[in-house]
UniProtKB/TrEMBL annotation, chain A:
Cellular location(s): Cell membrane
Gene Ontology annotations of biological process type: amino acid transport
Protein name (database record): Amino acid/amide ABC transporter membrane protein 1, HAAT family
Entry similarity comment: Belongs to the binding-protein-dependent transport system permease family. LivHM subfamily.
Transmembrane stretches, start-end: 15-35, 42-63, 101-122, 134-152, 189-215, 236-257, 269-297, 309-328
Keyword entries, A-Z: Amino-acid transport, Cell membrane, Membrane, Transmembrane, Transmembrane helix, Transport
Keyword Transmembrane: yes
Species, as recorded: Albimonas donghaensis
UniProtKB/TrEMBL annotation, chain B:
Membrane-protein topology: Multi-pass membrane protein
Transmembrane segments: 35-53, 84-106, 113-134, 189-209, 236-256, 276-301, 313-336, 342-360
Protein name as annotated: Amino acid/amide ABC transporter membrane protein 2, HAAT family
Broad class of the protein's primary localization: membrane
Location of the protein in the cell: Cell membrane
Organism: Albimonas donghaensis
Region (Disordered): 372-391
InterPro entries the UniProt entry points to: ABC_transp_permease (IPR001851), LivM-like (IPR043428)
One GO molecular-function entry: branched-chain amino acid transmembrane transporter activity
Entry-linked Pfam families: BPD_transp_2
Keywords in alphabetical order: Cell membrane, Membrane, Transmembrane, Transmembrane helix
Automatic annotation (TrEMBL), chain C:
Alphabetized PROSITE patterns for the sequence: ABC_TRANSPORTER_2 (PS50893)
GO molecular function terms listed in the Swiss-Prot or TrEMBL record: ATP binding; ATP hydrolysis activity
This protein's name: Branched-chain amino acid transport system ATP-binding protein
Transmembrane segments: none
Segments forming domain ABC transporter: 5-250
Record flagged with keyword Secreted: no
CDD domains for the chain: ABC_Mj1267_LivG_branched
Organism listed in the record: Albimonas donghaensis
Pfam families: ABC_tran
UniProt cross-references to PANTHER family, sorted A to Z: CONSERVED COMPONENT OF ABC TRANSPORTER FOR NATURAL AMINO ACIDS-RELATED
Keywords assigned by UniProt, alphabetized: ATP-binding, Nucleotide-binding, Transport
Length: 342, 391, 253
C-alpha cells in the first residue's frame, strides 16, 4: 500500500509535465488543426527562461579586496552577484527563488514566442496536409534547440529549487503513518500543485469567459462559428500564445527536477504526443487525464518488483500503452469522433 | 521520346554518375571512401523510404529502426558466420523485412498522424530496448562490434587483429589511389559494392514506379475511399509498400555495417528517422531521383559544414578588418561545425514552406521558365515522377 | 426476369433514430430501379448497406444469390457492384486515363496483386479498355489531363467511366445529376439510357429530380421515414395518394 502510494506520488510530477504539454498540443490541434512538433521545444524554451534568469541574477561583480591577500600575495578577489550587491538581502532572496521568479519572464516571453510562431509560420500551414505541418514544425524544433545549444552549450544546467522548498516532505507522518515511510521531495509536490493551478486556470478560462466559450465553439465547429461573424482566427492566435505559455511555465518549474539541456524538448515531445493520442486527439480533459495516467504508469513500471517480471518494461510502457490504445480505441480515451480519422 | 527510352536513358546516366562518383566529387572535397559510401547507403535508404512515403503518402517516423535492426543483423552474421558481406547483407534484409512486416501490420491499421505516431512509438521501443534489456544482443551503449574471438564458423581463424569485411576475399577497405590534375582520386572497393547496390535499388524503384503496383500505391495516397469501392484492398498494398521500404532500410543498415562492422542503438533514434524524411522531402518525395539527390546533399553538407570550425572561418574572412572578421565569423559559426543541425533545420523549414515538391520540383519550375512550353502540358509538372504510359 | 438484388426486412438504427424500418426491396436484373423519397427518408443509408459501408442491424441483402452482409466494400465491388457517389470520388492526383485504368486492373487482377515488376506500358489491353470507357462518356480527348483539374461535371462523368469499365452487374448511382444544369442533366440521362441498352447493367438510382426519375426508371420505390411505402411502375407512382402524402403532407414538412 505504501509502495503504491509512493509510486503514484512519483508519477505525479512527470504526469503534471505531460499533462501541461499535452494540453497545449491539444489546444493548438483543436483550435487551429495543426499538429505541432515544435511544442516540446516550447517546453524547453521555458526551462531555459529559468536558466537565463538564474544566470543574470548570479552575474558576479568582482572586487579586489583592499585588506585580504591570497596565498600568492595578490589581492583576494571578492565575488558577489550584482543582485546581492545592489539589492542586499532582497537580492539573495531573488537568487534563491530564481526558478519561481523566472515565471515573470516566461509569461510574456513565451506568449510572444507563441504569437510570433503562429503569425510567422504556422498560419501558412492551416490548409496544408498534416504531414507538411509535422515536417515544418519538426524543422522549427530542430532550429530552436540548436539555437539554445549555441548559447547555453550541450550540457545539462542544474537549477536549484528555493531552499525552503528543496527538502523532503514526510507524507506518511502527515497522514498518521509511520514516519519515514513515504518521503517525497517537496519541490515535486510544489510542481504538482502548480500544474493543478495552471490547468485549473486554463479550464476556468475556457469554461467561464466569453472568449473561452467562442474558442470551445470554434473547436467543435469552426466553420459555423466563422459564419456567425466572429473573428475566430484572432482568438485562435491568442490560444496559440496561451498554449506556448502553458508549455513554457511547465518547463520553468520543471528545471529543479530535471536539469535542462537543449534536447529536453524532443524527449518530452514524443511522450507528449503519445499522451495526446492516448487521451484522444482534440479532447482537453483527455489530454490531462492521460498525462497523469501515463506519468503514474511509468513510475509503476520502474519499480523493481515489476521490472523483475517484465524486464525493460519501464523503457517501453508508454509506447506500449499508446499502441494498445490506438489499436483498441482509436479515438483515445476521451476523444471525439471524426477527429483526424482521415 | 517515350517513357521506356527516357527511363533507360535516366538509368544509364544515373549509373555513370554514380560509378564516376570518386572522380566527379573529388573537386568538391567529397571524393573519399567514407563519404562516398555514405552517399550510396543513405541514397538506398531514401529510395526505400520514398516507396512508402512518396507513393502512398504514409509518413513513417520510425524507419531508422529498420536500418538499426539491419545493422545488428549484419554484425551478428559477421560474428557468427563469416566476414563475407553477402550473408550479412542478405540476413539484414530478411530481418528488417520481418520487423517491418510485424510493425507495418499493426501500424497500418491506422492512417494519418496516428500511423506516424504508431511507427514512432515502435521505433522508440526498439531504441529503448536496444539500450537496456537487449544488451546481450545489442551490447547496449558500447555498440555491437566484432572481436577476434568470434566463432565465424565459415572463415579460417583470424590472427592478430579482428578481420576486415570482404566480398569473397576483396576487402571493403581496400582502396586504389591515383592522382589526376593535382587531386587524389580514391577508388574504394566498399564504395563500388554500395554503388552497384544503389544502382540496382534505383532500377528496382523505377520498375515499381512504372508498374501497375506503383500506380495503385499512388491511388492509395490519392483516395482510399474510392479504392475500396473500386474493388481494391488497400491494406495489402500499403503493407507491401511498408515491407519493401523496410527491407531497403535493412539493406542500408546492413551495408553500413558491411563498410564498418559495428552497430549502435543511436542509428535507431527518432531523429535518425527524421533525417531520412528530410532527405526524401529535400530531393522531392514521389520522384525517382529526388531521394538520392536529397540524401547526397544532406550527407555532403553534413560533412562539409560540420568540418568547418572557427579558425577556418577566420581564415576565409581574413581580408576583413579584425572586428568585422570576428563578428562575421561568430555569426556564421552558429551555422557550421557543431551548429550544422541549425542549418539543417532551417533548410528543412524553407523547403517544406516554399518548395514542398523538393529540389526536383524546383528544377522543373526553373526549367519551365526557360522553355516556351507555356501551353498546359499535363505531364510536364510531374515528368520526373510519372510520365504517361508509353504511347 | 430474375431478381438480382434482394433486400429483406432490413433495419438500421442510429442511437434513437430508426433510419431503416423493415425495408423490403427487389431489383430485377436489367432494369433501372429508382429509390425516391423526402430528405431523411433513409435512401443513402440503404445504399450504404448495399456497398458495405454500413451493416444493417437485422435483415438480409442478397446480390445474385450471395449475401452482402458483413462483406467489405472491395469484396462487394469484386462481386460486381459499382457505385457512383453524390460528390465525385476520383483519384485527383492521377491522370484521367490512370483513373480508369485502376478499376480495369482491379477487375482483372482482383483486390490485390503484387505486379510491381511489370511495366504499365505493356498493359495495352487494359489501356484500350479504359480508353473505350472514356470514349463512352465523351472524355477521350482529356485522357492525359490531371483529373483534379476537371470541372465537377467532368469528374462525375469520369467516375461513371470508372464504374462502367468494370462492367458491373449492378451500378448504384447516388443522385447522379445533383447540382447539374438542365442540359447536363439531359446528357446524363441519355448516357445512362445508352449504357443500359448496350450492356444490360442493372441500375439503382437515388434521385431527387423527378424529371430524371421518370425518364429513366422502370420501377420506383418510395421511401419515407425508413420504410418503403410504395413500390410500383412510374406511371402508377405519379397519382399515388400515399406518395403525395409522404412528400407534401408528411411529418417532415
Amino acid at each position: 500500500m505504501d509502495a503504491i502510494l509512493l509510486q503514484i506520488l512519483n508519477g505525479l510530477d512527470k504526469g503534471s509535465a505531460y499533462a501541461m504539454i499535452a494540453l497545449g498540443l491539444t489546444l493548438i490541434f483543436g483550435t487551429l488543426g495543426v499538429v505541432n512538433f515544435a511544442h516540446g521545444a516550447l517546453f524547453m524554451l521555458g526551462a531555459f527562461c529559468a536558466v537565463t534568469i538564474n544566470k543574470l541574477l548570479t552575474l558576479q561583480k568582482i572586487v579586489l579586496s583592499d585588506t585580504e591577500k591570497t596565498a600568492w600575495g595578490t589581492p583576494l578577489e571578492l565575488r558577489t552577484p550584482y543582485a546581492e550587491a545592489w539589492f542586499g538581502d532582497a537580492g539573495t532572496w531573488l537568487i534563491d527563488w530564481s526558478v519561481p521568479v523566472s515565471i515573470a519572464l516566461a509569461l510574456p516571453f513565451m506568449f510572444l514566442v507563441g504569437l510570433v510562431m503562429e503569425r510567422g509560420l504556422i498560419r501558412h500551414f492551416y490548409k496544408r496536409p498534416h504531414a507538411d505541418q509535422i515536417l515544418v514544425t519538426f524543422g522549427l524544433a530542430i532550429v530552436l534547440q540548436e539555437i539554445i545549444k549555441a548559447f547555453f552549450g550541450a550540457n545539462p544546467i542544474p537549477q536549484p529549487a528555493p531552499d525552503t522548498l528543496s527538502g523532503m516532505a514526510d507524507f506518511g507522518a502527515a497522514f498518521g503513518m509511520e514516519a519515514g515511510v513515504i518521503v517525497y521531495p517537496l519541490w515535486r509536490l510544489v510542481y504538482f500543485l502548480f500544474a493543478a493551478a495552471v490547468l485549473g486556470a486554463v479550464f476556468c478560462f475556457l469554461r467561464f469567459t466569453t472568449f473561452g466559450m467562442v474558442v470551445r465553439a470554434g473547436m467543435a465547429d469552426r466553420e459555423t462559428v466563422g459564419l456567425l461573424g466572429i473573428n475566430i482566427d484572432k482568438r485562435f492566435t491568442l490560444m496559440f500564445g496561451l498554449a506556448a505559455v502553458v508549455a513554457g511555465l511547465a518547463g520553468v518549474m520543471y528545471t529543479p527536477i530535471l536539469s535542462p539541456d537543449y534536447h529536453l524538448g524532443m524527449d518530452f515531445l514524443v511522450l507528449s504526443f503519445v499522451v495526446v493520442v492516448v487521451g484522444g486527439m482534440g479532447s482537453l480533459p483527455g489530454a490531462v487525464a492521460a498525462g497523469f495516467l501515463l506519468g503514474i504508469l511509468q513510475s509503476f513500471a520502474s519499480m523493481n518488483e515489476v521490472k523483475q517480471i517484465l524486464p525493460g518494461i519501464d523503457q517501453i510502457i508508454i509506447y506500449l500503452v499508446a499502441v494498445v490504445i490506438l489499436l483498441t480505441r482509436p479515438r483515445g480515451l476521451l476523444g471525439r469522433k471524426g477527429v483526424m480519422e482521415a | 521520346m517515350n517513357t521506356k527510352t527516357s527511363d533507360t536513358l535516366l538509368l544509364i546516366v544515373f549509373s555513370i554518375a554514380v560509378l564516376a562518383g570518386p572522380v566527379i566529387l573529388a573537386p568538391f572535397g567529397a571524393g573519399y571512401p567514407d563519404l562516398l559510401q555514405k552517399f550510396a547507403i543513405y541514397g538506398i535508404f531514401a529510395i526505400g523510404f520514398n516507396i512508402l512515403f512518396g507513393l502512398t503518402g504514409y509518413l513513417s517516423f520510425g524507419h531508422a529502426a529498420f536500418l538499426g535492426v539491419g545493422s545488428y543483423a549484419a554484425v551478428w552474421m559477421f560474428k557468427l558466420l563469416s566476414m563475407n558481406i553477402i550473408p550479412a547483407v542478405i540476413f539484414s534484409v530478411i530481418v528488417a523485412g520481418l520487423f517491418s512486416l510485424v510493425i507495418g501490420f499493426i501500424s497500418l491499421r491506422r492512417s494519418g498522424i496516428y500511423f506516424s505516431i504508431l511507427t514512432l512509438a515502435f521505433a522508440q521501443m526498439c531504441y529503448n530496448l536496444a539500450y537496456s534489456v537487449l544488451t546481450p544482443i545489442t551490447n547496449g551503449e558500447t555498440g555491437l562490434q566484432i572481436t577476434l574471438s568470434d566463432p565465424r564458423i565459415l572463415d579460417a581463424a583470424a590472427e592478430g587483429q579482428a578481420p576486415a569485411s570482404n566480398l569473397f576475399g576483396l576487402d571493403m577497405i581496400s582502396t586504389w589511389e591515383t592522382s589526376l590534375a593535382g587531386m587524389t582520386l580514391q577508388f574504394n572497393m566498399g564504395f563500388y559494392v554500395c554503388a552497384l547496390i544503389l544502382i540496382l535499388s534505383f532500377w528496382i524503384s523505377m520498375r515499381l514506379f512504372r508498374s501497375p503496383f506503383g500506380m495503385m500505391l499512388k491511388a492509395v495516397k490519392s483516395n482510399q475511399n474510392r479504392m475500396s469501392y473500386t474493388g481494391l484492398d488497400t491494406k495489402p498494398y500499403t503493407l507491401a509498400a511498408f515491407v519493401i521500404s523496410g527491407m531497403f532500410a535493412g539493406l542500408a543498415g546492413g551495408l553500413l555495417a558491411a563498410m564498418d562492422p559495428l552497430a549502435g542503438a543511436e542509428r535507431m533514434q527518432w531523429t535518425a528517422s527524421g533525417e531520412v524524411v528530410l532527405m526524401t522531402i529535400l530531393g522531392g518525395a514521389g520522384t525517382l531521383l529526388g531521394p538520392v539527390l536529397g540524401a547526397g546533399l544532406i550527407k555532403y553538407f553534413e560533412n562539409i559544414f560540420s568540418a568547418i570550425n572557427d579558425s577556418t572561418l577566420h581564415g576565409v574572412f581574413a581580408f576583413l578588418p579584425d572586428g568585422l572578421n570576428n563578428a562575421v565569423s561568430a555569426v556564421l559559426g552558429l551555422f557550421v561545425g557543431e551548429g550544422w543541425h541549425l542549418t539543417l533545420g532551417l533548410i528543412f523549414m524553407l523547403i517544406v514552406t516554399f518548395l514542398p515538391g523538393g529540389l526536383i520540383e524546383g528544377a522543373q519550375r526553373i526549367g519551365r521558365l526557360f522553355t516556351s512550353r507555356s501551353k498546359a502540358d499535363p505531364q510536364s509538372g510531374e515528368a520526373q515522377s510519372r510520365p504517361a504510359p508509353a504511347e | 426476369m430474375t431478381p438480382i438484388l434482394e433486400v429483406q426486412s432490413v433495419n438500421k438504427r442510429f442511437g434513437g433514430l430508426k433510419a431503416l424500418d423493415d425495408v423490403n426491396l427487389t431489383v430485377m436484373e436489367g432494369t433501372v430501379h429508382a429509390i425516391i423519397g423526402p430528405n431523411g427518408a433513409g435512401k443513402s443509408t440503404l445504399l450504404n448497406c448495399f456497398v458495405g459501408r454500413l451493416v444493417p442491424d437485422t435483415g438480409t441483402v442478397t446480390f445474385a444469390g450471395q449475401s452482402l452482409i458483413g462483406k467489405k466494400p472491395h469484396e462487394i465491388n469484386q462481386a460486381g457492384v459499382s457505385r457512383v457517389f453524390q460528390t465525385p470520388e476520383i483519384f485527383e492526383d492521377l491522370t484521367v486515363l490512370e483513373n480508369v485504368m485502376i478499376p480495369a486492373l482491379a477487375q482483372r487482377d482482383g483486390a490485390f496483386r503484387l505486379h510491381g515488376w511489370h511495366p504499365l506500358s505493356r498493359e495495352a489491353e487494359i489501356r484500350d479498355k479504359a480508353e473505350r470507357a472514356l470514349a463512352d462518356v465523351a472524355m477521350a480527348d482529356r485522357r492525359n489531363m490531371p483529373s483534379g483539374s476537371l470541372s465537377r461535371g467532368d469528374k462525375r462523368r469520369l467516375e461513371m467511366a470508372m464504374c462502367l469499365v468494370q462492367e458491373p452487374r449492378l451500378l448504384l448511382l447516388d443522385e447522379p445529376t445533383a447540382g447539374m444544369a438542365r442540359a447536363d442533366t439531359n446528357a446524363t440521362i441519355d448516357l445512362l439510357k445508352r449504357i443500359g441498352s448496350e450492356r444490360n447493367i442493372t441500375k439503382v438510382v437515388i434521385e431527387h429530380d423527378m424529371h430524371v426519375v421518370f425518364s429513366l426508371a422502370d420501377r420506383i420505390s418510395v421511401l419515407a421515414q425508413g420504410h418503403v411505402i410504395v413500390e410500383d411502375a412510374p406511371e402508377n407512382i405519379k397519382g399515388n395518394a400515399k406518395v403525395q402524402e409522404a412528400y407534401l403532407g408528411g411529418a417532415h414538412l
